[in-house]
Amino acid sequence: MIVGLTGGIGSGKSTVAKMFAALNVPVYNSDREAKYLMVNSKPLRKEIQALLGKEAYIKKKLNRKYIASKVFANPELLAKLNAIVHPAVREHFLAWVLKQNTPYVLQETAVIFENMSQDNYDAIVLVTAPEFTRIERVISRDEMTEEKVRERINNQMSDSETTKLSDYVIVNLDLKETSEKVKEIHKQLLKKAFLID
Question: Which of 79, 99, 119 is the last residue of a domain?
Fold first, then answer.
């Protein structure tokens, strides 16, 4: 069974993913794998340079600041970049799924609803937190300005929209409560995978 784990920037998706991993659920981190593929896949590198210019890479490494400055202020360019990267990540993910031997796997990804890929999942877990909390988390984690964080938030669907479309919702404010919620959802997902009554 394939479960999507999503949530806006600063919601705490990675924290929640680690909690599922601690319950022996294999977790595929789409963001990390996308960065890996963007650097290590020659066809992908060529397409990205054709779209964003040679400056997208410095010494065969991703020039993340340059890419972010180009795409997060330009939704059309972001959509074009996603159209190059997402299919490659999807292919890589499906190959990874075949190697797993568990009731379900989790794909941690920032954009499920934005790129209309919800039908690829048997269930979707959404991680949310109040906007001010998310902004504070990202500023302290990535040393980003509030303006830049808001720019990223505005490129994602709002929690009120994504909550309606998700099967499970975790409000990630208190780590102990979040951990309990993860365990509860894990049990429900195992049931859904027909493995326990």
Answer: 99
- Long-range contacts of range 176-180, CB-CB < 8 Å, 24 or more positions apart? 178/12, 178/15, 178/16, 178/19, 179/19
CA angle at 80 for the pair 78 and 81, rounded to the nearest 5°: 65
Kindly report the pTM of this predicted structure: 0.88
- Range of 55's domain? 30-99
Which CATH number do you get for residue 160? 3.40.50.300
Q: Are residues 115 and 22 in the same domain?
A: yes
Of 52, 77, 99, which residue is a domain's last? 99
Per residue in 82-135, pLDDT tens? 899 999 999 999 999 999 999 999 999 988 998 789 999 999 999 999 999 999
Per-residue buried b or exposed e for 46-75, using 16+ beta carbons within 10 Å of the residue's own CB: ebbeebbeeebbeeeebbeeebeebbeeee
Whether residue 119 is found in the same domain as residue 188? yes
Contacts of 127 (CB under 8 A, 6+ apart): 5, 6, 7, 11, 12, 13, 16, 170, 172
Q: What distance in Å separates the CA atoms of residue 21 and residue 73, rounded to the nearest whole number? A: 34
17-21 long-range contacts, CB within 8 A, separation 24+: 17/106, 17/108, 19/178, 19/179, 19/182, 20/106, 20/182, 20/186
45: left (phi over 0), alpha (psi -120 to 50) or beta: alpha
